[in-house]
Amino acid sequence: MFIFCDDYLLISLLTGCELSFCRDSCQLPGQMGNSKSLSGQSLSPRFLPAEQAEIDRLFDALSSAELRSSTSPRSFSLQALKSHVGEALPPEMVTRLFEGMRRVDVTGKTKGPSERISQEQFTVSMSYLLKGNAEEKSLVILKMISATEGPVKAREVKKFTEDVVGSVAHVLSYRQELRGWAQKQAPGPLSRVQALAAQLCSEMKLQGGEKLLGPQRLECDRTTIEDWVFRAPHVATFLSVVIHQGFLLLCSSLDLATLVPERQVDQERKFASVLDVLSVIYINSHLPREQRQHWRLLFSSELHGHSFAQLCGRITHCGPCVVLLEDHDGHVFGGFASCSWEVKPQFQGDDRCFLFSISPSMAVYTSTGYNDHYMYLNQGQQTIPNGLGMGGQHNYFGLWIDVDFGKGHSKAKPTCTTYNSPQLSAQEDFQFEKMEVWAVGDASVTQLAKSTKSVLDVDPTAQALLEVSGRIRHSDGLREVPEDQ
Q1: Of 276, 275, 274, 237, whose CA–CA distance to 259 is shortest?
Q2: Angle ∠(284,288,292) on CA atoms, nearest 5
Q3: Parallel, antiparallel, or unpaired: how do β-strands 321-327 and 262-264 relate?
Q4: Percent of the chain at pLDDT above 90?
Q5: Rounded to the nearest 5°, which phi and psi values hold at 304?
Q6: Labelling 22: which of 46, 104, 246, 432 has CA 20 to 30 A away?
Q7: Which of 110-119, 319-328, 444-453 has the highest mean pLDDT?
Q8: Per-residue model confidence (pLDDT) at position 72
Q9: What's the DSSP call for residue 59?
Q10: Is pLDDT at 290 greater than 80 in this prediction?
Q11: 248 confidence band (pLDDT: 50, 70, 90)
Q12: HEC per residue, 124-165
């Protein structure tokens, strides 16, 4: 739970306790203004009593790891922090966290950063990184990026972001919190760590509108970093994962279930998805919150064969799902279907649907509002396309899987009208070997909806044959065909 300034008034009114907080309490070297110093004890109300006790215990463990004079203020060194963390985090990430903490000036009088971290510095740093706003987080992040004063280089921001993203994958694997997903090296020129880091950096806006991915001479000042932390919430979220799981600190306040969905595969044989834990985290973060905790495999070309009939039989009336492809050139892409798939000649879905790319780059493309061609699934028709599509129009889809399974297209000149997405595949008309469809959300709800469906609800051909034979649907009027979510 994050507590910001406005919450303090409410807590004070409810409890009758006076809580003091100064927004500009932490002054870093080179920071301008008349900021007042603030001790770690004054920041304690930011944490619940049990949380503050846990932070104090960690500091006690770190500061007791080395022999110090009884008259010296308690503090800890980089070596003590590395020894405590062990192999849970990469050494370069531990060093970055230490540098960020030791450069916090809680008195406003320090001439330079100390070589050790005091209890006040530790408490303030944890308060800012775990419970602070974008401005406060950026104060520490800026010092984690570079040890020099003033603006930081674009290449330094990129390297910092790669270290943070890589540390998330590392610590989740080390703590056995992958929830069934793999941590693997993706094929291609960019790893998944680099691809996700590049996506996060692309959300940064420099002065003059320049992009961070441009020339390496570009510089980012504190205002730019603050705006970036606000604009790209993944940065702060990933840092909190690194601290919670790396330090084993306040882990109960981290909801990993909505960050990394549980992977559910009903097959006894081993199944290797084309997704790794980082790409799953990225896609999952764009889903409605109530659908982020579980991913259940509905269809895999590897397990269920290269069959469009199998695809339709396994994904219809199963609720929201993620469709995923890997073409012959190694591009990984797909789409999120916000509603159950139905076999019918009309477009379906709503503006919660989106297309995405995972490799060679990560990006999500949401609805433009230009049209409502979100989802399309059809077969057995003579005059209109047969296959699965998302976005665009007939014969010109943003993503298309042909009924002749193994073939598809992604047409966007210049972009898909429905999602504003570019060409997702390496070639406009592509071939693929790997396709996966994952149901997201509560399986019990979608299974109940599917169990109430008749074959006549699912297959329009069966309905037509029944009518031609002169028979009627005796179930009509006795049950109501459920509407898909």
Answers
A1: 237
A2: 45
A3: unpaired
A4: 65
A5: -110, 0
A6: 246
A7: 319-328
A8: 73
A9: H
A10: yes
A11: very high
A12: HHHHHHHHCCHHHHHHHHHHHHCCCCCCEEHHHHHHHHHHHH
| Dihedral sign (CA 188, 190, 196, 200) | negative
Whole-angstrom distance, CA of residue 20 vs CA of residue 302: 60
- pLDDT, the chain, mean: 83
For 44, 61, 93, 227, 248, the CA distances from 104, given in Å and listed in that order, are 17, 21, 17, 20, 22
Over range 159-167, report the average pLDDT: 97
Q: Are the beta carbons of 386 and 378 closer than 8 angstroms?
A: yes
* Average pLDDT, integer, range 410-423: 95
Kindly tell me the burial class for residue 285, based on how many C-beta atoms sit within 10 Å of its own C-beta (0-12, 13-18, 19 or more): middle
Q: How far is CA 400 from CA 194, 332, 381, 448, in A?
A: 28, 14, 16, 29
Please state, in angstroms and rounded to a whole number, the distance separating the CA atoms of residues 223 and 208. 13
Place of tokens 């429905």: 418
DSSP string, 229-263: HHH-HHHHHHHHHHHHHHHT-SGGG--HHHHSPEE
Beta strand pairing call for 429-440 and 407-409? antiparallel
Q: What share of the chain is helix, strand, coil (3-state, %, to 5)?
A: 40, 20, 45
pLDDT for residue 164: 98
Which residues pair with residue 11 across a beta bridge?
A: none
277 with 169: CB under 8 angstroms?
yes
Q: How far apart are alpha carbons 352 and 375 in whole angstroms?
A: 11
**pLDDT value at 25 more than 70:** no
Angle at 160 between CA 155 and CA 165, to 5 degrees: 125
The pair of three-digit structure tokens given for residue 109, joined into one six-digit string: 């009088």
Residue 30: pLDDT band with limits 50, 70, 90:
very low
SS3 of residue 407 by DSSP: strand
Task: Say if CB 337 and CB 321 are below 8 A apart.
Answer: yes
Distance, CA of 250 to CA of 46 (rounded, Å):
13
- Pairing of β 375-378 and β 387-393: antiparallel
Sign of the four-CA dihedral 82, 86, 92, 97: negative
> Amino acid letter at 105?
D
Which tokens belong to 86?
């062990």
For residue 15 the two structure tokens come to 């409890």
Most confident by average pLDDT, 25-39, 417-431, 460-474: 417-431
Averaged pLDDT, 335-348? 96
**Position 431 pLDDT exceeds 70:** yes
Q: Which two tokens stand for residue 412?
A: 């966007």
In sequence order, what are the residues at sequence separation of 6 or more whose Cβ sits closer than 8 angstroms to the Cβ of residue 53? none
The answer to whether 338 and 353 are in contact (CB under 8 A) is: yes
**Cβ contact 96:160 at 8 Å:** yes
CB 426 within 8 A of CB 329: yes
